[in-house]
Amino acid sequence: MTNRSGILFAVGATVAGLVTAVPSPATAGTGAQRAASLKWTDCATKSSPTLQCSSVSAPLDHDDPSGRKVTLALTRVPHTSKTFQGPLLVNPGGPGGSGLSMAGFVAASLPKGVAAQYDVIGFDPRGVGKSQALDCVPKYSDPVRPDSVPQSLRDEQINRDRARSFAAACGKKYPDLLPYIDTVSAAKDLDVIRRATGAAKLNYLGYSYGTYLGSVYAKLFPDRVRRLVLDSNVDPTGIWYDDNLSQDYAFDTRHKAFMAWVAKYRSTYELGSDPAQVEAAWYRMRAAVKKHPAGRKVGASELDDTFLPGGYYNGYWPVLARAFAGYVNHKDEKALVKAYERFGAVDAQGDNGYSVYTAVQCRDAQWPRDWNVWRNDAWKVHTKAPFMAWSNTWYNAPCADWPVEPLNPVRVSNHELPPVLLFQATDDAATPYEGGVTLHRELRGSSLVVEQGGGNHGVTLSGNACLDKYLADYLAKGTVPHGEGGDVDAVCAKTPDPKPAAGKAAKAAPRAGAEGRGGALHGMLGFRG
After folding, report:
1. For a tag on the chain, would you pick the N or C end, based on fewer CB atoms within 10 A?
2. CA 246 from centroid of its chain's CA atoms
């Protein structure tokens, strides 16, 4: 793998002006190939006053188009400009993420003149939310769960049995659906949506797992892709077991970056000035809540879940650091419980998301069936990167006993596409940098824009003006940057790390949306996807 540090070279001050253009709207084949069949109704919200809702029917089995159907829920912010560039489908990732709120967010976050040229369409993929939601085991993640890190074979067996029972319950509850909850089926659903809009070609913006979904769509239907934006890219060569092992190392590195940030503000958090000292305090806190769960809710596994979102988005660091310091310095369990309820607790939507996550990932590709492979890999990673190794193992462990035979991953390599625009942060933990470079190489003619030193997952429309300009230029005019050799076509500086909250904000309870636009985006992207 490429080392994240020092991987970028200077691409030159002129790189922003080195662009390739895809055809303009007048020549890009955006005209309708047939009349649109969707019936849109008003479903406006305070934040999205022009939002509309609809649904479309798709075959459960795309190889049997006249058979059983699934209903896909859609939202739309319609175009208002005379220049119409067609539908822009947006997806937050997952698998298992609901995309209905994404339409309003993307339309509001893009420059008005750009958003006005598109019908921005969000959707719940099959099995998600309003698209016939799966819920294999309600309240599966309710506290207090067994510690993810086994101290004995008995501890390991307890979690092994939980994962096995989840897989069995899912197979028993949805035997007719599970064979069709997979990425290829979801990609074919995208084409059903495209046809229903009446468009000949599709525009698409996908984050996280949504980059793999978009890449698979492009492989299946290269002639139907108009513009394709992929942000925080899944490594298509590691689907999915190897990709998860890569995540384990990257999240540990990102957790250490958080520890270093806490140490930087030692006068605020009083946990020490040495990152290693701060990290040791965090693991002592973990050991303490394992013995005596905070508020009878936050044990060791719940603590892991609470702090994991900090690896996705550094805007959460001040809230997490305050809860961490409050517990260590003052035995304040309430702040830790509030942070858990904000970041770690799993509600019915989370149950649905996890059910779809497992259904898709376990079906998409082969996973080891020999538990010794999982155990050995988990301990190997844990020795060097303990933060997430075992918790991520158990999160994916149902795949070791999944009741549906796996498919083969799609080879997404493609040389038939118009210019594709990729975004990637160098220190992204959920989709490590190397995956972005790999996908860039797989999609011939694509352009890779990198946020140097950035560690957030999902970087466009999150407050970085440099990245957002490349996105807006591409959606408006089809232009993409090209570097002077190598893997990187353009570089943007990272957004600054947050500072500790001050005054009343420092004492306020954590709340959704308090982190601004970046927090709004990352709330929709969710965690683990």
Report:
1. N
2. 15
- Which residues does the annotation mark as catalytic? 208, 428, 457
Assign 282 to helix, strand or coil: helix
Which pTM was predicted? Answer: 0.93
Residue whose pair of structure tokens reads 């939601």 in the numeric block: 133
Mind listing the pLDDT tens digit of every residue in the chain (529 residues)? 334 334 343 333 323 333 444 444 433 444 445 666 899 999 999 999 999 999 999 999 999 999 999 999 999 999 999 999 999 999 999 999 999 999 999 999 999 999 999 999 999 999 999 999 999 999 999 999 999 999 999 999 999 999 999 999 999 999 999 999 999 999 999 999 999 999 999 999 999 999 999 999 999 999 999 999 999 999 999 999 999 999 999 999 999 999 999 999 999 999 999 999 999 999 999 999 999 999 999 999 999 999 999 999 999 999 999 999 999 999 999 999 999 999 999 999 999 999 999 999 999 999 999 999 999 999 999 999 999 999 999 999 999 999 999 999 999 999 999 999 999 999 999 999 999 999 999 999 999 999 999 999 999 999 999 999 999 999 999 999 999 888 999 999 999 999 998 755 555 554 545 567 788 898 898 766 5
**Three-class SS of residue 32?**
strand
Tokens of 399: 């795949």
Rounded Cα–Cα distance for residues 140 and 350 (Å): 10
Continuous segment of H or E residues that includes residue 72:
strand 69-77
Phi, psi (rounded to 5 degrees) for 480: -130, 150
Q: Which residues pair with 76 in a beta bridge?
A: 52, 121
Residue by residue, DSSP assigns 198-233 as TBSSEEEEEETHHHHHHHHHHHH-GGGEEEEEEES-
342 DSSP assignment = I
> What is the Cα–Cα distance from 214 to 237, expressed in whole angstroms?
15
136 contacts 79 by C-beta, under 8 angstroms: no
Sequence-distant (6+) residues with CB within 8 A of 439 are: 211, 215, 230, 233, 234, 235, 236, 412, 422, 446
Tell me how far apart the alpha carbons of residues 237 and 215 are, in angstroms, rounded to a whole number: 12
